[in-house]
Amino acid sequence: MKVLLTGGSGQLGRALRSTLAELGDVVAPPRVEFDLGQALSLTGKLDALAPDLIVNAAAYTAVDAAETDVAAARAVNAESVAVIARWAAAHDVPLVHYSTDYVFDGALCRPYRESDTPAPLNVYGATKLEGEEAVLESGARALLLRTSWVYGPNDGNFLATMLRLMAERSELSAVADQVGAPTDTGLIARASVAALRQCLESGAGWGLYHLAAAGETSWYGYAVEIARQAPSRGFALQCVPDAIRPIASRDWPASARRPANSRLDCSLFSATFGLTLPCWRQRLAEVLDQLAESHHDAT
Ligand SMILES: NC(=O)c1ccc[n+]([C@@H]2O[C@H](COP(=O)([O-])OP(=O)(O)OC[C@H]3O[C@@H](n4cnc5c(N)ncnc54)[C@H](OP(=O)(O)O)[C@@H]3O)[C@@H](O)[C@H]2O)c1
Asked: Which of 30, 42, 100, 245 has the smallest CB count inside 10 Å?
């Protein structure tokens, strides 16, 4: 099976490369060869690549920049997704696509279900929602997976930023009035591929699902947990858990509004695929172990 993976250089894409290799040959063209900013170029490229499965992990993920870079965000998150989904439907090629908790406004007082009405607060969320709609309207056999607060053993996420800041500073602050579940790329990759295998084998189960780690916290709670868990794994931090100050979103300047409630109810995914999703704290420990090991190997 030839698997086309877009966004292979991203956080999730890196985790998916090895996991998808269990299913076949993974082709992960870089942006210069398969540019989702150029939606009109993609049909010919898909014809030439002729994949048996498409996994779209590419996205315009700069949430604040998207507020003023609307056309670029829409091209990657919506227009190109529509082209890819239509190609997948026309060629009966299965598609895995990722979306986000940011399609919701966060006003509900419980975790969001797939049946809840999206109402994005920012451009990123709005363009991701347009991408979802394009996938669903295409009629492709698709697994559409909404996830949240993505991080992995790499740079460019909250964990990496906190580890750097905590090594440099003796105190810092983090937003306490946004709640969600930090979800690592290893979990998403393994759970996606396990679900995909079942869909491919049974021919059923395609659709929209929420996929995130179990449990919930705020960005503040996440930072405190990092400060608790990292020192025992060899990370030299200046900042102890008690020196982290909870602050409100309004005190953290950002261009884009973010939902206060990012919690995703993942019971449909768990029940459909028989998969129990681990708690975010347990997964954080695992990712810190991986980071500590790679740091140790590099020194
Ligand atoms: N990050 C989060 O907290 C979060 C939360 C919820 C859902 N998600 C969703 O999860 C999925 C994976 O996110 P992630 O965190 O892994 O993202 P990421 O680390 O920012 O990676 C994005 C990937 O998309 C690629 N990309 C961006 N623009 C492109 C273009 N014009 N053409 C081709 N490729 C392009 C990037 O390639 P380059 O290396 O060339 O830039 C990179 O490989 C996305 O669908 C995202 O919306 C993410």
From this structure: 30
Cα 205 from Cα 202, distance rounded (Å): 8
Cβ of 37 less than 6 Å from ligand 1: yes
Residue-wise pLDDT for 258-291, tens only, equals 999 999 999 999 999 999 999 999 999 999 999 9
Q: What percent of the chain has pLDDT over 90?
A: 98
* Mean pLDDT confidence for 112-127: 98
Closest CA to 54 of 18, 33, 81, 79: 81
Please state, in angstroms and rounded to a whole number, the distance separating the CA atoms of residues 274 and 232: 34
Rounded to the nearest angstrom, the distance between the alpha carbon of 12 and the centre of ligand 1 is 8
Give 88 Cα–ligand 1 centroid separation in angstroms: 20
CB of 55 within 6 A of ligand 1: the answer is no
Q: Is the pLDDT of residue 295 over 80?
A: no
Q: Which domains does the chain have, with CATH numbers?
A: 2-154+181-216+263-278 (3.40.50.720)
Q: Which residues, other chains included, contact 160 with Cβ-Cβ below 8 Å and sequence gap of 6+?
A: 151, 154
Rounded to the nearest whole angstrom, what is the distance from the C-alpha of residue 189 to the centroid of ligand 1? Answer: 14
For ligand 1, whether the C-beta of 11 sits within 6 Å is: yes
Q: Hunting for tokens 């998403």 — which residue is that?
A: 188
Out of 61, 135, 159, mutate this one to test ligand 1's pocket (max ligand atoms within 8 Å of CB): namely 61
